[in-house]
Amino acid sequence: MLRRKPTRLELKLDDIEEFESIRKDLETRKKQKEDVDIVGGSDGEGAIGLSSDPKSREQMINDRIGYKPQPKPNSRSSQFGNFEF
């Protein structure tokens, strides 16, 4: 592998202005999304999303993606079958 000196990056005024405009755009989108969540929270999902309980958050995610966890069997015979020696 060839080594070379690090490339020098220069921060220009145009770059700063572009960054600020993108950041403001993202902030307005985030505020609009929060407003929609607050207004649309009457169906119950918004209230669950605001709670700090990790189980309800996990349950909400599982419901959203359609995952239904099955309990794991604890007995060894169910893991390995019925082997007879």
UniProtKB/TrEMBL annotation:
<keyword id="KW-0132">Cell division</keyword>
<dbReference type="GO" id="GO:0007346">
    <property type="term" value="P:regulation of mitotic cell cycle"/>
</dbReference>
<keyword id="KW-0131">Cell cycle</keyword>
<feature type="region of interest" description="Disordered">
    <location>
        <begin position="34"/>
        <end position="85"/>
    </location>
</feature>
<dbReference type="GO" id="GO:0005680">
    <property type="term" value="C:anaphase-promoting complex"/>
</dbReference>
<protein>
    <recommendedName>
        <fullName>Anaphase-promoting complex subunit CDC26</fullName>
    </recommendedName>
</protein>
<dbReference type="InterPro" id="IPR018860">
    <property type="entry name" value="APC_suCDC26"/>
</dbReference>
<dbReference type="GO" id="GO:0070979">
    <property type="term" value="P:protein K11-linked ubiquitination"/>
</dbReference>
<dbReference type="GO" id="GO:0031145">
    <property type="term" value="P:anaphase-promoting complex-dependent catabolic process"/>
</dbReference>
<keyword id="KW-0833">Ubl conjugation pathway</keyword>
<keyword id="KW-0539">Nucleus</keyword>
<dbReference type="GO" id="GO:0051301">
    <property type="term" value="P:cell division"/>
</dbReference>
<feature type="compositionally biased region" description="Polar residues">
    <location>
        <begin position="73"/>
        <end position="85"/>
    </location>
</feature>
<dbReference type="Pfam" id="PF10471">
    <property type="entry name" value="ANAPC_CDC26"/>
</dbReference>
<comment type="pathway">
    <text>Protein modification; protein ubiquitination.</text>
</comment>
<keyword id="KW-0175">Coiled coil</keyword>
<keyword id="KW-0498">Mitosis</keyword>
<comment type="similarity">
    <text>Belongs to the CDC26 family.</text>
</comment>
<comment type="function">
    <text>Component of the anaphase promoting complex/cyclosome (APC/C), a cell cycle-regulated E3 ubiquitin ligase that controls progression through mitosis and the G1 phase of the cell cycle. The APC/C complex acts by mediating ubiquitination and subsequent degradation of target proteins: it mainly mediates the formation of 'Lys-11'-linked polyubiquitin chains and, to a lower extent, the formation of 'Lys-48'- and 'Lys-63'-linked polyubiquitin chains. The APC/C complex catalyzes assembly of branched 'Lys-11'-/'Lys-48'-linked branched ubiquitin chains on target proteins.</text>
</comment>
